[in-house]
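Appendix B. Raw example, untouched.
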Amino acid sequence: MTIKRIAALRTADDFRAHCAALGIELPFDAAAHGSAYYELEAHPLAAPYRLRGGRVIGNRFAVHPMEGWDGTRDGLPTDLTLRRWRHFGLSGAKLIWGGEAVAVRYDGRANPRQLVIAPHTLGGLAELRETLLAAHREAHGSTDDLLIGLQLTHSGRFARPDPGPLYSKILYHHPLLDPLHHTPPDLPALTDGEIDDLIGDFAVAARRARELGFDFVDLKHCHGYLGHEFLSARTRPGRYGGSFVNRTRFLRELVAAVRRDAPGLGIGVRLSAFDTVPFRPGPDGVGAPVDWRAALAGNAYGDAVASDDAVAGGDGDGIVYPYAFGADLRDPLRLDLTEPAAFLALLASLDVELVNITAGSPYYCPHIQRPALFPPSDGYEPPEDPLVGVARLLGAAAALKRQFPGLLIVGTGYTYLQEWLPAVAQAAVRDGWTDFVGLGRMILACPELPADVLAGRPLQRKRLCRTFSDCTTAPRRGEVSGCYPLDPFYKNFSNELHE
C-alpha cells in the first residue's frame, strides 16, 4: 500500500479527491485554506463556548493532556515540564484538557518520571499552572476565558512506576494482552476493596487539584489504563465487572467521591470511545490484527455475557471478543457505539458536561488512537492510510455529539491533517461534528498553531507535525518526550542532562 503524504495534497481538490478515493468523509471548508478563511465574518474556531454554569471558554481549540517522561523520580515537574506548560499557555487554546497525565499515587505511574499529585509535589504542580497562566496572559491578554484541567490517572495494566518491567495492576486477565506484555498468569486482579481504596485516592487528588486552582479534573477512561479497563471488564466477577452497570460503577463512585470531597470542582472524562484487538507487525512490518479467534478457541466466551443486555450469544462457533469497549463483540474490527453512547448518557445523568473523545491504546493498537505515517520504534507500519483513522475518530465524535448535543465534546485526530487542519477543523465545529478541536503532538511541534490560525497568520509549514513519532519513540527508549525533528531545543537536547 502506498500512502500519499498530506504535504503532497496541494489543493482543496487534491484533498477532496484523495478522501473520495479512500472512501471516507471528512468535514471540509475550502475557504479555510488561504486568505479567504480569515475574512469570514463568523470564525467558528474563534467562537466562545458557554458552559451550563455560565463560564465562558474563549475559543474552540483544546490542548490534550500529554506525558512528557520528564518529571523527577519522585513525581515533581522539571524545567522541561514547565517549558511544555508554558507552550500550552502560548498556544492560544482556551481549553487546557488536563495538561498532563498525573498519577493519583506512586504505583499508578505509567513511567518512572510521570508526575504524581502528592503533598510533596503540590508546589510544583501549582508552578505549572501559574507558568501556563503567565504565558497566556503575556501572549493573549485575559485569562478569564481560559479553562484549565488536570488529568488524574492510574495506569493499571501499563503501570511502570520504577525502571524495569511493568508493575501491572489488572482488573482481569486478558488472553491476548497478558502474553504480549508478560503479565504473570498468577498475578491477582485488584480486589473490590482495593478499588474502593483507589477511589478514595482519586478523591484526595481531586481535592488537592481544586486547592491548587484547577478548574476541573479529568477522570481518565482511555488508552488502556485502569479507568478504560473497567469498561471492558466483562469477565470480571463482583461489583465492578460483568454487566454495563457494574463496569461503570467505578465512574459513578468516582464522580460521587469527587463531588463529596471537592465540591464545586468541574469534572471531565477523556474516553476511548472504541477499541479493537491488538495489532502486531506482520512479515512486511505492516500492522495486522492478532488472530483472536484462534487465541480464544477452546475458551469461548458466551455464558459470561449471557446476562449482558448488549450481547446475545455469538457467531456459530460461540466465540465473541469481550475485551474491546466500543467494538462489535462478534467482529472487534468493527465499531459498535451502543455502549459508548450509554456511557455518555450516564455522564449526562451525572451532570458531567466535559467529554473528550479518543480511542484505543498506544500499547496495542496505536494506529486507531494516534494516526501517523511513521511508526514509533516499537510499533508497526500503518495498516491503512492514516486519513482513514482520522475519519474514524472524527466520525465517532460526530455520531456521539449528534446524540448528546448538550455535552461539550472535544475531538481527537486533527494533527495528522497538517496543512489541512484548519479546513477540516473549521468545518467540524461549524457543522456540529465537535465543539472543540483537540491538539496534542501538534502543540509539541508548533505550539503557536492555534494562535496563528485565529490571528490569520500563515501556517508555519516547516514546523507542522509530520507524525514522525519521535515523541513516542523517545519515551520507549527511556528518554524524555519532545519534538526532536522540529523543535530546535530537542534537536540539540542530550537526555543525559535529565539523568
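End of appendix B.
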